[in-house]
Amino acid sequence: MNILISNDDGVFAPGILAAKQAVEDLGNVYVVAPDRNNSSVGRRLTLFKHLKIVSCKLEDGSSAYSVSGSPADSVVVGADYVMDEKPDLVISGINQGVNVSCDITSSGTVCAALEAVSLGIPAIAVSLFVDPKTAYKQDENGEWYVDYDFTLTKKVLHDLVLKIKNEGFPEGVDLFNLNVPSNYESEDVKITHLSHKMLNKKVIDNTNEEKRDIFNHHLKENQNSDDLIMIVSNLVKEYEKGSDGYALLVEKRPSLTPLKANMTFKELDGW
User: Fold this and answer.
1) Whether the predicted pLDDT of 242 surpasses 90
2) pLDDT per residue over 185-213, tens digit each?
3) Same domain, yes or no: 68 and 171
4) Are residues 34 and 149 in the same domain?
5) 183 lies in some domain
6) Banded pLDDT at 6 (limits 50, 70, 90)
7) Mean pLDDT value of segment 255-261
8) How far is the C-alpha of 236 from the C-alpha of 139, rounded, in Å?
9) Lower CB density within 10 Å: C or N end of the chain?
10) In whole angstroms, how large is the CA radius of gyration of the chain?
């Protein structure tokens, strides 16, 4: 089994190494990913422009390639250029964040998987939802850091890929969207559907009192804020039962959503 792994957090993000470690016993693994963070870029492609591809090493010394483009670019480059033959499976992740609901169409992680599907390759998008209440910790010097514990995510991903290797994808399914919580209360995977929405978005300017710290933090030195605005967002807090958001954030268990790339609803007879 030939497996291509990419992501949107960048080739040196800890999640991509965790993904490789999760499945490297199941086939030949290739890692091709953006050279920097590309979160929320959707399915952006770089057409008829030069891309730089660089051979590099991951933290464990294994080989990888960085691409000066988007997650979708990296999948195309990996499948059509780096690998000698088309991969049997593409894994996008492990994303350090959350990708649930119909908002996944803006996700670089999920859209890398969608790009694979457009190439005729089944795919898995996988994310670790890090609960800020439990994941932020201090070291012996008092410095704050994020504890990315990929243990359960790696186990679930390994088991899913093993099942796919043995049985193939379910009929009609093009890709899986897998989300695993860091503060899980159950390891049992729930098959889910997409929630209606993940993020409540709002536009602010320098008059906003609630988000003033965030707005000012992103100002560049000597930058005038009078003509600047910012889009900010908060996670939706309520989700319907059976949805990916409910499993992940309410039941605190892994959510697996089977998806089709063709978003056609049905014929509108008599409309």
Assistant:
1) yes
2) 999 999 999 999 999 999 999 899 888 88
3) yes
4) yes
5) yes
6) very high
7) 97
8) 31
9) C
10) 19
Show the 3-state SS of 189-250: CEECECCCCCEEEEEECCCCCCCHHHHHHCCCCCCCCCCCCEEEEEECCCCCCCEHHHHHHH
Reading the block at residue 160, the tokens are 């899913």
Please identify which residue in the block is written with the tokens 């209360």.
Answer: 185
Contact between 2 and 87 (Cβ < 8 Å):
yes
- 129 vs 180: CA distance, rounded Å: 6
- Same domain assignment for residues 148 and 225: no
Mean pLDDT (whole number) for 249-269 = 93
Q: Is residue 267 part of a domain?
A: no
Q: H or E segment at 77?
A: helix 71-77
- As a whole number of angstroms, the distance between CA 38 and CA 199 comes to 18
Confidence of residue 134 (pLDDT cuts 50, 70, 90): confident
- Domain residues for the domain of 221 are 199-235
Note whether 142 and 172 are same-domain residues.
yes
Q: Examine residue 87 and state whether it is found in any structural domain, yes or no.
A: yes
CA distances from 245 to 91, 141, 180, 194 (A): 21, 36, 11, 8
Same domain as 215, residue 187: no
pTM given for the model: 0.93
Q: What are phi and psi of 248, to 5 degrees?
A: -75, -45
CA nearest neighbour of 103 among 40, 44, 39: 40
Query: Do 164 and 220 reside in the same domain of the chain?
Result: no
